[in-house]
Amino acid sequence: MKVPPVDPSELHPRAFEESIDLRQLEGEGEALSAEALCRLQNFLGEQTDPQIRKQFLSIFLPWLSRASDPDHCLIQFERVFRNDAERVPTIEFLAEHPRAVEILVRIFSSSSYLSQILFRHPSAIFDLIVRESLLELKSREQYRNEALEVSRGAPTELERLDALRRYQQGEYLRLGTCDAFGLMDLKSVTVQLSLLADGLVQCCLQETCRQLGLSEQGFVVIACGKLGGEELNYSSDIDLLFLSEGDPVAYWPVGQKIIQSLGNVTAEGFLYRVDMRLRPWGESGPLVNSIDAHLEYLRTHGQPWERQALIKARVVAGDRKAGARFLKEVDRLIYAPPPADLRAGILESKQRIERGLTRRGEEWGEVKSGKGSLRDVEFITQYLQLLHGGARPELRTFNTLDGLVRLVEFGFLRPDEYRHLSTGYLYLRKVEHVLQLMHNVQSHKLPEDEAALESLAYRLDFESAEQFVRQYDMHRQSIRTIFQNHLEAEEFVEPSAKHRAADRLLERIVMDEPGYDHVFSEREREHHRQLLGSLGPDRLAAVSASAQGNTRRWKVAVAGHDEPGALLAICGLLFAAGLDILEGRVYTGADVSSTGSNSRADRAALFLNYFTLEASADSEIIDEQFWSTYETRLSELLSEMQTGEPRKAQARVARLAASRVGHERRKAEHSLKPITISIDNNSSAEMTVLHVQSEDTPGFLYELSNALMLSGVNIRRMQIGSTERFVRDTLFVTDLAGRKLIEEDRLKELTTTILLVKHCMHLLPTAPDPESAWLHLRE
Asked: What is the pTM of this model?
């Protein structure tokens, strides 16, 4: 329903004057247009008590000002409450329940579909503030029983279906609200949406069998796709198979009736679009097939993609014993393919999808099926499950995230690959959810319109579309690299500049540190090579982390594009998180870039650092998600450094580090123990070697990196070691032109800088305002 524009002149003069006065209410109305103010006056109505009106506005306007489109949000309010016969009591209710106002603004801003549900049923607002019912996690049996209850006693078939659709919409409203406010994580939301679909399918089957006088015994409903994987979206199709143990023809009316109940459109909409193309011979095949006939089809005619789809097969309704027998036989068929055929089949399926996107000009921003998309994660997971699931039955699971966990647990994925795939998958699923929740349509593509992209970024809690797209591209590139490593590894690819730079850097590490080959196993060295090789324009940093017995101690490898200040960013982010560097090695590629070209790609300089870290008792939670966020933050800082904004990036790191200083506050119980600094210009023909031995102080390595950078000193290599409260650091440094530091004045300046920073860092936590002192120290 389109709401017509409001002409201010049509309002009562006094009412319009009051609406203009809203601009003065704590300044919150200043961003609203005159038309928006008129809509607000219409929405409130003249019957609302002035005191209630003012109380409501004091809550409503601050939330409205934070909406991505305040005018659109107001339109939704006007639409909903124009239909509400109890408008005045509702406004009084909202004035007394600020949480309800916040919920409504968020819903009206993020989803026209959920707004439409409230437009038809305004009374649903009152249910949204009851926290216990809002957050309830229901079982499929509970969903089924509730669906049966709401439809019981309906005098006609149409009214029964309308009751089911209203019930589904109410649950979508509840789950969508939890989703929008982060009250449920993504996995909980998708599982609840899937169990709701299970319950509704069971309800439709039960009612269909009752009407036709048939038993559910011997009839099975199998779900595949997102429903089978318990990964359903708000607007997903549901992929179903209908099977029977006896004569399938007898159950054709059951199958037809279920599809009609789920898919037919009534005044209240529809439940689900049903996709039956996974049955033998697709749409031309029988609607219901016998279990034995379906298995025989898979043995003799089944295509690789059909076997792959059955990884997600799950019994959702009907005879569960018969369904379990079918799935057991399916496992024997699908988990024993020849490796080469399996890889070729899955790769061809993905390439065919991508060719279709290219033909339609839809490749960019395709969250579901493009390069580095959700399909890439699913195909990697399914490829490894099918490849190893014959020998390892533990890998057989219908859920993608669960499959990734099992693959890393049994060593078929590296921890860093698992982290990139799982965090990327969750990120893309969240984007897909927000896209679909807006209008309840099957949308998987990012908008190309700038305003629409900004709105999407806002709904995903990003500051700007640019920041959102940057993170989207990072996830996409990481996922695509892993996809290529597993499914395109046998194909020769001409080494790029980044791969050549990676090889040169590793060769230099081996030359400069003969112990490298002894410290790291062949598998770890190959992992370093892959980490460096995964870098590119869309991925400026790559992080691999593994917990050492507990989540307080970690071994971390960090690779990235070498920019002035990169080490500063690495150490600053670690310090800000409360992570202490116990041991480490730092290598930069400033001396291994290729020559003869001005192209950044051709003169790619990389760094490779590896650390042993320990989290302080009051550090933030250090887990796989933390390292994904760390990689993203580091990449953003390197991007700013690369694009000519190093001071901005350094200031961001400084603010983060300064906030950590407050956590390190303590009394100066003893004076700082002596610091030993020795300068060696003989050991290396190319670099000056500094040996620093001192008492450990929080943040020293970060601030030392900062001070040396500001002094025009480039840290080319570093070895970090510690024993109890003492650190022994060896730094290999040059000036910014790559020359050794040999002038006596310069060496004195260098020594003074280190001493000054060390003493300041020892005393800083005792200052009345450590954060302010830290920031002034940098100046």
From this structure: 0.63
